What we know:
The protein has helices at residues 13-20, 53-60, 65-84, and strands spanning 4-6, 9-11, 30-35, 40-44, 51-52, 98-99. With 100 residues, it is of the alpha+beta class. It has a single domain (4-99), classed as Transferase(Phosphotransferase), domain 1, CATH 1.10.510.10. The strands form 3 sheets. Strands 1-2 form a two-stranded antiparallel ribbon. Strands 3-4 form a two-stranded antiparallel ribbon. It has a two-stranded antiparallel sheet with strand order 5-6. Strand 1 and strand 2 (9-11) form a beta hairpin. The protein is globular. The N and C termini lie far apart (34 Å).
Amino acid sequence: MFDLxxxxxxxxxxxxxxxxxxxxxxxxxxxxxxxxxxxFIIVMxxxxxxxxxxxxxxxxxxxxxxxxxxxxxxxxxxxxxxxNLGVIHRDIKDENLLVI
Length: 100
C-alpha cells in the first residue's frame, strides 16, 4: 500500500503525486495529510464558491462553445503541466473538475 517517500516518510502514491504537482497551475492543492492506523486522510483545498463540472452542466444545461473551449483549454494546460512532472491523472472526468 505504501509506494513512495516524502522526507524519508512512507506515503501512498496519491500523496506523493499530489506533492509532486503542488506548484502546477489549475491543480487543487493538498493542504495536509494524516496517517491513521488503517488509512491516510488527505486534506485538499476547496475554493469557495465552486462546484464540479458535472453539477455545473446539470444545472445550466449544455455549454456554449466559448465556455466549453475555455474549460477544455484549462484542462489541457493542467494535463501538460502534470505530464511535464511525470504525473498522469488517469481519471479525468467532469466530476473531477472544479468550476470556480
